[in-house]
Amino acid sequence: MMNVLIVDDSRVCRRMYAKELSKAGYGTFEAHDGLAALRLVKEEQIDLVVLDVEMPNMNGYETCEHLRSEEFTAHFGKADKNREVLPVVFVTSNQSLEGRVKSFNKGATDFIIKGFKPGTLAETINRILRPVSPLHGLTALVADDSKFIRNMLASSLKEEGLKVLEAGDGNTAFDILCDSHETIDMVITDLEMPGMNGDILCRKIRRELGMRGIPVIILTARDEQKGLLALFQAGATDYLIKPFARDELVARLKVSVEVKREARREVDRDEDLESSARQKLAEAHAKAADQAEVATAILHNVANVLNSVSVSCNQVRSQINDSRIKQLLLANRLIEENLSDLPRYLADDPRGRMLPDYLLQLGLKIESERIAVAQEVEAIAEKIEIMKSAVISQQSYAKGKEPLESFSLADLADEVLAIQKSLIENAAVVVGKEYSYREPVFLPKSKVTHILINLVKNAVEAMADCEPRLLTVQLFRVDDQVKLAITDSGVGISPQQQAKLFSHGFTTKKDGHGFGLAYCKRAMDEMGGALTANSEGHGLGTTFTMVFPRGGPRA
To answer: How far apart are CA 259 and CA 443, in angstroms?
Structure first.
């Protein structure tokens, strides 16, 4: 049993450390300061010292300096031929880098900060006193026609924790590799064997089995340079010239295994880097596709508004072309022609007598035209603002931020109905409104606007071939949730269609592209809300409901 000396002025710490190390299979000695520790090192068989830094009489740094002195080094070297110095593990509450550097400068083997988790001390000491061989747990295939050599090799390898398979010739070894190559970690083969020599076995391992990374150690009595070079040409990882020492064999195997593991780690690092690069590229593609999808949906909404703007522009153009301004100019020309004798013209000429009443009536009509044009221009300005907000919304989405605004959902619903006024009137749709909730909400207004534009347009189009055509907009609050429902009396939606309704690219329209509703659903999800669709079936209309969660809209 190996013994650990615990040096600490705290009896509680000594008892705690001793308990943990006893469970780990170590014998323990205790000392309350450095002087007592030095005395015990001389008197007892000590394999490692656990050393506190802050102690009375002699602190940990001073104690370690004494343990590293020539006197103690010579004493320990006689007691333990496998180690030159006594391992020292500092245990301290000093977490500074300076304290760590000073500890190692004084000769510390390792360093632990007090307050460590149970088991940490035992793990640290095991790593020093009971290092696990890099060969432990591996499987080696030993091929040699000498049973004595096989037994000697198997015994040495088993001491290192390896599992050993044996073969008396090259053919048997190759058969074992064919059957169990996935479980074999290394091959140790004699060069000269009946049936198949070791160098041929090595070539077959590399070429036929494709085991290019497995260490293959060839044992040979030849020591000429040309023959040894041929072994490497055959694919050998290393060679040993008979007779060889056990330690030399183990050392060669450890190096070969470590080289293989480092190569594997290098490959893993490259794969991790490649995987990370692929992941970043995939994320970039996903983000680009994500932004493209949102941009497409917003452009779809902009196109809807542009159609409305186009209708308004046509109405303004028609009003200008049919304007009474031409008649006013004609009246002005008559006045201009008779300006020199205007009183007589207005009093005696039949056309002149009609002119004042004509101008009065014309003024009223022109004023009516002006109001209508002004209203259309105002509507166009509002629609342009909506398109402008769509562009800003897309820019904000690309940056990951969207502005929140305080507004009334009722007012916004009215604005959207006004934007879609031409579409609604041309389709002979009757609109009904039921608003029981008018408090302001705090949401991305542009996003909510475009959802409503989509839903209203879809509702109107769904009633194209139906009678009657009734569009109902309801706004109400239920259980602290604000709901805005748009109901049409249109063709309805089948259960199969409802399941796919919000999927990107799905559409029931001949000329549709399936972007609108997918965007609406996504936008509501991003606001923490929900968008649902309900239809009783074909010909029974559809209700789309925007649900804002509790705490989402706030007054």
So the answer is: 61
Q: Look at residues 383, 545, 529 and name the one whose alpha carbon lies nearest to residue 455.
A: 545
CA distance 27 to 246: 31
Task: Please write down the long-range contacts of 478-484, taking CB distance under 8 Å and 24 or more positions apart.
Answer: 479/550, 480/550, 480/551, 481/547, 481/548, 481/549, 481/550, 482/409, 482/437, 482/441, 482/547, 482/548, 482/552, 482/553, 483/545, 483/546, 483/547, 483/548, 484/409, 484/413, 484/452, 484/545, 484/546, 484/548
The per-residue DSSP string of 143-157 comes to: E-S-HHHHHHHHHHH
Low-confidence ranges of the chain (pLDDT < 70): 74-84, 263, 267, 272, 276-308, 385-402, 504-506, 508-515, 550-555
Check: CB of residue 1 under 8 Å from CB of residue 45: no
262 token code pair = 């480092």
CA nearest 542: which of 469, 486, 492, 470?
492
Task: State how far the alpha carbon of 405 is from the alpha carbons of 230, 390, 477, in Å.
Answer: 81, 14, 20
Which pLDDT tens digit goes with each residue over 499-551? 888 876 667 666 555 667 887 888 888 888 999 999 988 888 999 999 987 55
Angle made by CA atoms 237, 239, 244, in degrees to the nearest 5: 145
Terminus-to-terminus CA distance in the chain, angstroms? 75
Both tokens assigned to 255: 């190096």
Residue type, 225: Q
Give every CB contact of residue 419 below 8 A, 6+ residues apart in sequence. 305, 308, 379, 382, 383, 386, 453
User: Beta-carbon neighbour count of residue 464 at 10 Å?
Assistant: 11
What is residue 527's DSSP assignment? Answer: T
Rounded to an integer, what is the distance from CA 467 to the centroid of its chain? Answer: 51
- Does pTM top 0.85 for this prediction? no
